[in-house]
Amino acid sequence: MEASSSSTKRKPTAIITIGMAGAGKSTFVQRINSYLHSLDPPSPPYILNLDPAVTHVPFEANIDIRDTVNYAEVMKQYNLGPNGGILTALNLFTTKFDQVLGLVEKRAAEVDYVILDTPGQIEIFTWSASGAIITDAVASSMPTVVAYIIDTPRTTAPATFMSNMLYACSILYKTKLPFILVFNKTDVQPHDFALEWMQDFEEFQAALASHSSSRDSEGEPTYMNSLMNSMSLVLDEFYKNLKAVGVSSMTGDGIKEFFEAVEASREEYEKDYLPELERARAQREKTLQDAKDDSMDRLMKDLEIDRAKNPQGALNDRWDPDEENDEDDDDDTDINIVDRSEHPWPGQYIDVTRARRHEDEGINWPRPG
Ligand SMILES: Nc1nc2c(ncn2[C@@H]2O[C@H](COP(=O)(O)OP(=O)(O)OP(=O)(O)O)[C@@H](O)[C@H]2O)c(=O)[nH]1
Ligand SMILES: [Mg+2]
Prior knowledge:
Elements: E1 13-19, H1 25-38, E2 46-49, E3 63-64, H2 65-68, H3 71-77, H4 82-94, H5 97-106, E4 113-117, H6 122-126, H7 129-141, E5 144-151, H8 158-175, E6 179-184, H9 192-199, H10 201-210, H11 223-239, E7 243-246, H12 255-309, H13 311-315, H14 323-331, H15 349-357
Parallel strand pairs: 1-4, 1-5, 2-3, 2-4, 5-6, 6-7
Bound molecules: guanosine-5'-triphosphate and magnesium ion (MG).
């Protein structure tokens, strides 16, 4: 299904698995790993374990955070509890993430998938700076999808289901990446109830109403209930932005469907995420260029003062009319994308002469604020 010849080889797809503690992230990673190995021809993925506190992972990771940081040592050394320890270990690891990406990119020609297993405590990855840095770094280097793993048997209560969906929603809007809801453990609990609730909010509201504690002693819907009723309407919009698959990491059920969703998400990445990423990049380049132009202006102003003080020295500056043409691309303010390797370095001769030519115009250079 993948192109394997190196000339047509496309970039690998990164799958970031995220989910509540015990949802089955690591088992899921192992399952998709063995699925990819069983393909014909086999397509072994490149796996990163980002959980520093795990004692045993069911797969062979290509890069393991535990090789870089010793979580127990970090806890001791920084006097931290378990979660602070995991967070600090992740932060330390993130400072080296450029090397990680370098290694991944070196293997990009051989692998079709890069899989990331994240720490058990979901918020350590989703609400930390390092989680965001890692996600952004991966997503700007290759097509990336988020696989949000859900413990299906534990989500059958409408209230739990809604909390889980709200969490997923917050991650979707934070990362803006293509998102797949993976209802795991379908061998224990089929996920059709979840699909029904997502497709039809009235079904969800009915389930909510039939739930025992949905009315108070006077027979009125409880506060919690009306809140969830209204939220189900809001979430309706959110559901439209994602794909949902049911899998069993235990039996391997639904894994093929998962990869079909990954393929569709990859297209979504290229259609929606990538142009946005490039726009943001161009914006950053422009900000950088504006800052450079600003310091250049200030430099010119300083030079002008110097010349006023030392007219004899100013006579030594020469102006080469040929260079005026080059100047044009310099003056353009409506071009945002700049190849910095072609831009004159600050203090280059051409810019000095420009100031001299405009001497009599009495330019007021902006001063730093
Ligand atoms: N029945 C069943 N059990 C599963 C499935 N997937 C995972 N489990 C079990 O769920 C438990 C947690 O699985 P893990 O893979 O460790 O979950 P995790 O999300 O990586 O856990 P942390 O990293 O500790 O948060 C284990 O006991 C698994 O055997 C599944 O598809 N079906
Ligand atoms: Mg795990």
